[in-house]
Write a sequence for this structure.
């Protein structure tokens, strides 16, 4: 049986870094579900599609071929290297918009479930424990203060050469959180049975160890 650890929480809480480290340590697959929404958003931006058109965006789900792997940071979209662009601010904003569409979300369900194979899976996202893998062995909700997340994102964007202000980022992150939390479909909440970890003051290694500790407590593991 494939063991599943879901890792939900807001952007910048460290899910990606912690999730990859966990997957490598445990020898599990890794699903970065945010990349799915990002790839649809980037595809829509590249092809000048209307981001307000839920049906139009949902219709592109099968047009987009996304490749990413645990061992390499490279992400390709329909064969093109989009590693940098897919994490840009414009794609973050666009993906947050299309992630609200229930039609889009429904069409991504089966694709995401297929990542559950082999010994185990670390599933990183917003609705992994609540919607995609409700019977996961361990559900973690990883969070961090808006300030800490804004500083992380600021450093990331500056390193990428994007011109942003920390205050602006803080405001946008708080606004995006609110949208993600209050949306009707798959809202960003710590679902039933999820263990909440606040990573504001913790290193990646500390969070990883804490999760492995909870995982080791599961009787069948
Ligand atoms: O984790 P991320 O920042 O790469 O996610 C990009 C967007 O996709 C963000 O607005 C939240 C959304 N998302 C979602 O709604 N459900 C998921 N399972 C993963 C991401």
């Amino acid at each position: 049986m494939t063991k599943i650890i879901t890792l939900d929480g807001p952007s910048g809480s460290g899910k990606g870094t912690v999730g990859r480290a966990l997957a490598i340590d445990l020898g599990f697959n890794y699903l970065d579900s945010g990349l799915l929404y990002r790839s649809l958003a980037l595809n829509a931006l590249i092809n000048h599609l209307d981001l307000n058109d839920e049906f139009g965006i949902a219709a592109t789900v099968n047009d987009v071929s996304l490749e990413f792997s645990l061992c390499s940071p490279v992400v390709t979209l329909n064969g093109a290297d989009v590693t940098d662009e897919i994490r840009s601010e414009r794609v973050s904003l666009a993906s947050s918009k299309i992630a609200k569409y229930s039609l889009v979300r429904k069409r991504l369900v089966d694709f995401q479930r297929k990542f559950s194979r082999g010994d185990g899976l670390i599933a990183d996202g917003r609705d992994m424990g609540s919607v995609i893998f409700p019977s996961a062995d361990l559900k973690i909700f990883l969070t961090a203060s808006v300030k800490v997340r804004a500083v992380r994102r600021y450093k990331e964007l500056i390193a990428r050469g994007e011109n942003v202000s920390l205050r602006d980022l803080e405001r946008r992150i708080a606004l995006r959180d609110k949208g993600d939390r209050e949306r009707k479909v798959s809202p960003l909440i710590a679902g039933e049975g999820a263990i909440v970890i606040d990573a504001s003051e913790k290193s990646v290694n500390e969070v990883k160890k804490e999760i492995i500790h909870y995982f080791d407590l599961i009787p069948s593991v």
About this structure: The domain at 3-216 is CATH 3.40.50.300 (Rossmann fold).
